[in-house]
Amino acid sequence: MRINATPAAFADAAFFVSGTGTDVGKSVATAALLRALRQAGLAAQAVKPVQTGVEDAARQGDAALYAQAVADLPAAALAPAATLHSFRLPASPHLAAAREGRCLSVAGLRRDILAHWQAETAPLSGEGAACALLLEGAGGVCVPLNEREDTLDLMAALAVPVLLVARNGLGALNAARLTLDAVRDRGLVMAGFVLVQPPETDNEGERLVLADNERTLRNWLDDLGAPLAVLPWVELDAGGWDRLAQAVRPVAQALLALLRTPAVGPDALIRRDTKVLWHPYTSTVAPLPVFVAERSRRNRLVLRGGKELIDGMSSWWAAIHGYNHPRLLAALRAQAGRMPHVMFGGLTHAPAVELAERLLEMLPRGLARVFPADSGSVSVEVAMKMALQYQQGTGQRQRTRFLTPRGGYHGDTTGAMSVCDPVNGMHGLFARFLPQQLFMERPACRFDQPFDPASLDDARRMLAAHGHEVAAVILEPVVQGAGGMWFYHPDYLRGLARLCREAGALLIFDEIATGFGRTGRLFAAEWADVTPDILCCGKALTGGVLTLAATVCTDEVAGGICRDGQAFMHGPTFMGNPLACAVALASLRLLEEENWRERVIALEDALRRGLAPCRALPGVADVRVLGGIGVVETVDPVPVARLQAFFVDQGVWIRPFARLIYLMPPYVTPEADVERLCAAVCEAVRQGLHLPA
Ligand SMILES: *Cc1c(COP(=O)(O)O)cnc(C)c1O
C-alpha cells in the first residue's frame, strides 16, 4: 500500500553523471571522481544503471574501468562498481533493450536504483560511514530510454545533483550550452563540469580553440556557481589515475561540500513559512499544518525529503493532464522566449487569438466572444458586469440584482462572494458590504434520479416575484463544486433557461470547475444541451500551469453592451497574458488528442468501484460519483488536519473540507493509482478518522 519514498539520504548522497554526447570521456571522468572521493575517505561507488555493448558487465564495460581506477587503494565499505542492467548491443538503451525483448522505464530504473542504494547502504547505516553514489548515464542527456522517456526524465525523477562531462574540441561549446540549458530547464542542480582534454597537440589553431573553450565554459559555470575540472590526456596506469584524481579535485570538493550540507529540511522551511506566509482560509494564529512540495510529475507530487504522493486533487480541478506535461512546458518555454507579456490595450498576439478561436469551437454553440480574465473570480466579476451593462444598454436599468441557487460557489472577490451560498459562504462576515442578491433553493433533484419538475418551483416563484429586477441568474451547471459537491439533474437547467427567457433575465453558467471534461462532457452545459448567455471558464484552462480564465458571451449580449458606442468597462493589467494563452492553447490541443472522454469514463468507473465500500460505514451520509469527481459526504464536518496527516502517511494527496472527502484526480492517473486513492479514503473512514475529534 505504501509508496517507497526516496530516502532523504539518497537525495543528499547520489549524483548523476551525464555527458554532452557519447564518447566524451564520461566513464574516465566518473572513474577519476570515484578515485578522488575514495582518497578523501568516502565510501563511494560508481553505478551504471544501464550498460550497453557488453557480454559480461562485471569484466567488461565501465564497471571494469571503475574497479581499475581504484584497484591500488584500500578497500572501502562499498564495492567500487555496480551495473544494474546490461545489454549486448552497443547502442542507445532503448534500442539495445528492445533487441533483447525488454523495455526500460524511468519508474522501473528509479525503483532499481533506490533498491540498490538501500541494499548497499543499509548494512553501513549503523556505522555512520559517509557514502556516495555516482550514477553514470548512458550517452548524453537526451538519449532515449524507451519510446517516450529519455535520460533527462530519469535525472528529473531522481532529482539528484548533476555532473556533466564534455570532450574539449571543436563543437564542444555548442554541445555544452545545449546540455546545460536542458539540465537547468528540468530544475536540476548543476554540481560540476568535467572537461576532458584530447591528446596534446602542437597545432597552434587547435590549442587556441581548446584554451578558449575552457575559458568560455568557466565563465558560464561561474554564473551557475558550479566548478570546472579539466582532465589531461594520460595513460590509464596507476600514475595516470592519480593525475586524473588530482585534476578532478575541484569537482570532487564540490560534491563533498554538497554531502556535508544536506538540503534544508522540510521542518526549517515550514517554520519560516509560518512566520511570513498566509495560506488559503487559515488563521495565522492556529494555522493548519502544511507540507513542503518540491517537485511534481504526471500524477505524483514529491515532498521535500523525497516522499512521493499520488495526487487526488488535480490542484483544485486544474491539473487535468497531470504535472510537468512536456507539451505544456514546451509551449511555456517557447512563448517565454518570444514574448512573456505585453499589454492587451491596443495590442494583440497570436496566442490570444488562437486560444479564443479554439475555445469557441469547443464551447456550446452560440457563444461568440471571449474576454480573457486573470482568474476564475475575476471572470465571474466580468460576467456580472457584462450582465449589468447589457441590461443598461437595452434600457433595463432597474435590473441590478442576481438570482442564484443556494449551495453555490463563484469565487472570493466581492461580486463573486455576493452570489456564493449565503450560509456557508462569507456573507456573515461582510454582510453590510456585499450587494444583496436573491437566493433560491438549490436544485434538489439528484443527477442519477428521474427528473422531478417540482425542483424548479422555487426558481419559478422567485422569478415571478423578482423577475423585473433580476439582471441575470448565475449558477454552476450540473455540479455545485466548492459549495458542497452536489450533482443535480441537467433537466433543471433546461427548465431554468426557459424561465430566464420568460423573465427577461440573462443566464450565466459558471463552468470554472466543470469545464474541460471533468463531468464526462466537455462542458457541463452539454448535459442539458443549453447555451447560456454568458459562460465563465478557468481552472483547467491552462492544464493547471498558470492562472487564466475567460468570460464568453453571445453576440446578443455583446451587441447589447456595445449599443450606442458604449464600451465594456473592464481591463486587467495582465489581461490575455501570452504565456498563459500559449499554455492554454497547448492544453486544449492535448485534451482533444488524448481522448479525454475515455479517460474520464475510466476514472468514473474506478471511482465508483473504489468508493462504494464507504457507503455502508458509520458517519457517511452519501457517496456519489460523476465523471472524474468522487465524493464521500460525511454526517459531521471532518477534522481536516488529522485526515490530511493520515493521507500523507498513506502516500496520497487528498484535502477534505467541511463534510466532504472528495477525489478529482488528473485524467492521466493510472487505474492502480485511482484504486490506491479510493483505498486510502475507505481506510480513513473505516478507522473512523472522519468522525469529530
Ligand atoms: C474555483 C472557482 C471559482 C473561482 O476561481 P479562482 O480562480 O479561484 O478565482 C469560481 N467559480 C467556481 C465554480 C469555482 O470552482
From TrEMBL:
Keywords (A to Z) from UniProt: Aminotransferase, ATP-binding, Biotin biosynthesis, Cytoplasm, Ligase, Magnesium, Metal-binding, Nucleotide-binding, Pyridoxal phosphate, S-adenosyl-L-methionine, Transferase
Gene Ontology, cellular component aspect: cytoplasm
NCBIfam families, sorted: bioA, bioD, PRK05964.1
Name the UniProt record assigns to this protein: Multifunctional fusion protein
GO MF annotation: an example: ATP binding
This enzyme's EC code(s): 2.6.1.62, 6.3.3.3
Regions annotated as coiled coil: none
Binding site for pyridoxal 5'-phosphate: G376, S377, D510, P572, T573
N6-(pyridoxal phosphate)lysine carried by residues: K539
Role this protein plays: Catalyzes the transfer of the alpha-amino group from S-adenosyl-L-methionine (SAM) to 7-keto-8-aminopelargonic acid (KAPA) to form 7,8-diaminopelargonic acid (DAPA). It is the only aminotransferase known to utilize SAM as an amino donor. Catalyzes a mechanistically unusual reaction, the ATP-dependent insertion of CO2 between the N7 and N8 nitrogen atoms of 7,8-diaminopelargonic acid (DAPA, also called 7,8-diammoniononanoate) to form a ureido ring.
Domain of life: Bacteria
Binding site for Mg(2+): S27, D62, E136
Originating organism: Candidatus Desulfovibrio intestinavium
Obligatory cofactor(s): pyridoxal 5'-phosphate; Mg(2+)
InterPro entries reported in the protein's UniProt record: Aminotrans_3, Aminotrans_3_PPA_site, BioA, DTB_synth_BioD, P-loop_NTPase, PyrdxlP-dep_Trfase, PyrdxlP-dep_Trfase_major, PyrdxlP-dep_Trfase_small
